[in-house]
Amino acid sequence: MTSKAQRATPDPKGFGKVAVLMGGKSAEREISLLSGGGVLKALQSKGVDAHAFDPAERDLSELKKEGFQRCFIALHGRFGEDGTVQGALELLGIPYTGSGVMASAIAIDKVMTKRVWLAEGIPTPRYTLLRRGAYQREQVLKIPDDLGLPLIVKPAREGSSIGVAKVQGYSEMQGAVDAAAALDADVLCEQFIAGDEVTCPILGTGDGARALPVIRIVAPEGNYDYQNKYFTDDTKYLVPCGLPPGEEAAIQELVVKAYRVLGCRGWGRIDVMIDGRTRQPSLLEINTSPGMTGHSLVPMSARATGISYEDLCLLLLADATLDQPAQGAAQP
């Protein structure tokens, strides 16, 4: 993977004028600004004509008017990772990084992702979906009977662990559901799996998709929340992951399959829990526009294979494309 990726590092001058989309309107705006700032600095350091562009402050139509030829999507969450920006860029005819419209729309929705994975025989924790308005006390209190305790409650379409709660008892259920429902009308209640928490990035598209090294995450008291993800140094990230022989390779094979069946392209990262008793992996979710902050995991995994942050940004930008390129148009 390393030698192939490094050989393919492109000429930065060939990209033309590049917009780094960052900020946006989602609950992950703060993280997106950190990611985008890092990407912008990296691309500029490599000689790319890159500029910051915040869709929350400027209309996307300005991309075409100002002559941008590619977009690096450093947006996270809704209106950036869910197919909406991707669809707009398709209409504008401006190639962009990461997954296309359909894959992005499915992947942002944790329940739809689970349904696709389960249909393909890919393991994911058992779950219950509470739809808009179905938060009555009697419904909520039945969930631990089905999934057991502890369990996880989260918004169906948010990232960065925003709104995620680990529920230890029946008395905590309603508060956790209400907090998640404040962020998303659909609330996902998920079986908790005790064991190792790992994540695995993927680069590429289709048959060319390849997994990077698995990262094992060791968070304070097992609580890998928003604060411990981005704003403390207490969480430990182990690369090499130190898993038993064969486990890392099996997880890499599984996540590449899961990435391909969703139709993802360019890059992504899949979070996985490994049952401490059975050692069986279960896939939690996929990120199709992963973080690129100083604490982010895709750059960390890439670095373990010899790919620098700056070169990673170039490689991702080189893969920018469209779902439906204009007839006769040259593909990047």
Describe the structure.
The chain has about 325 residues and is an alpha+beta fold. The protein has 3 domains: about 1-95, Rossmann fold (3-Layer(aba) Sandwich), CATH 3.40.50.20; about 105-125 and about 195-310, D-amino Acid Aminotransferase, Chain A, domain 1; about 125-190, 2-Layer Sandwich (Dna Ligase, domain 1), CATH 3.30.1490. It is about 35% helix and about 20% strand. It has helices at about 1-5, 30-45, 60-65, 85-90, 100-110, 110-120, 135-145, 175-180, 225-230, 245-260, 295-305, 310-320; strands at about 15-20, 50-55, 70-75, 125-130, 150-155, 165, 185-190, 195-205, 210, 215-220, 235-240, 265-275, 280-285. α2 crosses α12. The radius of gyration is 20 Å and the shape is globular.
Distinctive features:
single chain; 332 residues; alpha+beta; Rossmann fold; D-amino Acid Aminotransferase, Chain A, domain 1; Dna Ligase, domain 1; 3 domains; 6-stranded antiparallel beta sheet; 4-stranded antiparallel beta sheet; 20% strand; globular; disordered N terminus
Entry summary:
Its main location: cytoplasm. With 332 residues, the protein is α+β, with helices and mostly antiparallel strands.
What is the arithmetic mean of pLDDT? 91
CATH class of the largest domain: Alpha Beta
Outline the biggest β-sheet: 6 strands, antiparallel
Order of secondary-structure elements: HEHEHEHHHEHEEHEEEEHEHEEHH
Oligomer designation: single chain
Q: How many helices in DSSP terms?
A: 12
Overall helicity:
25-40%
How would you describe the shape? globular
